[in-house]
Amino acid sequence: MRQQGTLWSWWRDLRRIWRVMRDPRTPGWLKMLPLLALIYILSPIDLLPDLAIPGIGSLDDLIILLLALRMLIDLAPGEERRPPSKREDVIEATYRVLEE
């Protein structure tokens, strides 16, 4: 049974981000991207002010955070960029039925 959907995709991406952040092969500047995005979100300086444009003002914060996380996943070294592998105990093959 294959699990699909937005929530499963987010959960998979969060697990991938966690592994990338803990991977010693990941450069320090790449690990700083999510932290810099959080600092931007918490800072009073915004590209679109939250008070001037209600509702849309928070949109730039969300976009910055999502871009930082996507860059972290896409630029990560090694195997972390690949989607998770299938279960190891399943063998993909073609079969034929022999009549007795």
Overall description:
The chain is mostly helical and 100 residues long. The chain has a domain at 27-81. Helices cover 49% and strands 0% of the residues. The chain contains three helices and no strands. The chain has helices at 6-22, 28-42, 59-75. The longest helix is centred in the first third of the chain and has 17 residues, at 6-22. The radius of gyration is 20 Å and the shape is elongated. The two termini are 33 Å apart.
Biggest pleated-sheet summary? none
Question: Uncertain spans, ≥5 residues at pLDDT below 50?
Answer: none
- Helical segment tally? 3
Approximately what portion of the residues adopt beta-strand conformation?
under 5%
Order of helices and strands: HHH
Mean pLDDT: 77
Radius of gyration: 20 Å
Overall strand count: 0
Inertia-based shape: elongated
Distance between the termini: 33 Å
The residue fraction in helices comes out at 40-55%
Structural class: mainly alpha
Quick rundown:
Helix 2 (28-42) packs antiparallel against helix 3. This protein is 49% helix and 0% strand.
Layout of strands and helices, then pairs:
Layout: H1 6-22, H2 28-42, H3 59-75
Helix pairs in contact: 2-3
